[in-house]
Design brief:
Layout: E1 4-8, E2 11-16, E3 19-22, E4 28-31, E5 38-42, H1 51-54, H2 61-71, H3 76-79, H4 81-87, E6 89-92, H5 135-164, E7 167-175, E8 193-196, H6 204-216, E9 221-223, E10 243-251, E11 256-257, E12 262-263, H7 267-285
Parallel strand pairs: 5-6, 5-7, 7-10, 8-9
Antiparallel strand pairs: 1-2, 2-3, 3-4, 4-6, 8-10, 11-12
Helix pairs in contact: 6-7
Length: 287
């Protein structure tokens, strides 16, 4: 097998076919962009807490693992695999419990920091203190993964802009079937699919296409409920109309048992339909 070695944001990466694996602790992987201006972002599928993060946690290992599983968008790297292969993108290999790259880095700008769940979680879902660190240590932790991930995502978007003159970010997630105590939206009637938007970066056509295609497949759909917003690198946030972004949230009850963390038998079928809906919507948007 032929491969080339490249340097990406300070890491050594091996390009094997279309996949580039980051060597340094396997913190994330990249699938190269294809022939369309689309970047998929899968930030929360992992439950991995690297050793370089573990020393700050003050709860038992067993409890830490359970917390990581409950917080993870488990199996979304597989659920969205078809669109990831089709369009390319980035997949986190670190639990959001260690570093949540979808939060603002500065706690002053991050609403969830009020419940101890900013870029670096210090509280559990129940509000228990789970981690302690100094300001100096905080900087080191952010440098270990958070900032590298954002640099790479920004680089992928920049590459798409150079190559195509535009970029569509598909922010891929899942959510629990019942609201957790710390979540702002406490409504029980959660939909099968939530579409999260940004006023500046989510085109009406893309939103309409996604809602229509999911509904045509029999899914219940809500926009910005129970979650709103979508990932946009800060370099382009509110500044560059060439960068589109939309959040796709899939209700976990559709594809997994939320009690034992196992995939349901319908998992492959659900994943295929979801990816088909997303692909059809992107095609409509890019006409």
């Amino acid at each position: 097998m032929k491969f080339t070695i490249v340097v990406l944001n300070g890491f050594l990466a091996y390009n094997i076919s279309t996949i580039s694996y980051i060597r340094k602790m396997k913190f994330y992987k990249i699938l190269k962009l294809k022939k369309v201006p689309v970047v998929c972002n899968i930030p929360h599928s992992s439950i991995n807490i690297p050793q370089s993060f573990k020393g700050d946690f003050i709860i038992p290992e067993k409890k830490l693992i359970k917390e990581a599983k409950e917080l993870a968008d488990l199996f979304t790297d597989e659920l969205y695999a078809n669109i990831l292969k089709k369009y390319g993108g980035i997949v986190s290999g670190v639990s959001r419990l260690a570093t949540d790259i979808e939060r603002f880095e500065d706690d002053k700008n991050e609403p969830m920091s009020k419940v101890g769940m900013g870029a670096l979680y210090v509280k559990s879902q129940e509000g228990e203190i789970i981690r302690e660190f100094s300001d100096i240590r905080r900087e080191k932790l952010l440098n270990l993964f958070y900032r590298q991930y954002h640099k790479t995502l920004t680089s992928l978007v920049a590459q798409s802009l150079r190559q195509f003159g535009r970029c569509v970010i598909i922010d891929c997630h899942s959510f629990p079937s019942r609201p957790r105590d710390y979540e702002p939206d406490q409504k029980d009637n959660r939909p099968d699919i939530c579409i999260g938007t940004d006023k500046y970066h989510t085109p009406a056509l893309l939103k309409k296409a996604l809602v229509g295609n999911f509904k045509n497949k029999g899914f219940s759909v809500k926009v910005n409920s129970p979650f709103k917003g979508t990932m946009i690198p800060l370099k382009y946030y509110g500044k560059d109309k060439r960068v589109d972004s939309v959040l796709i949230e899939v209700n976990r009850k559709l594809y997994m048992n939320e009690r034992n963390f196992r995939r349901k038998k319908v998992f492959p079928d659900i994943g295929e339909v979801i990816c088909d809906c997303v692909s059809s919507s992107i095609k409509e948007h890019l006409k």
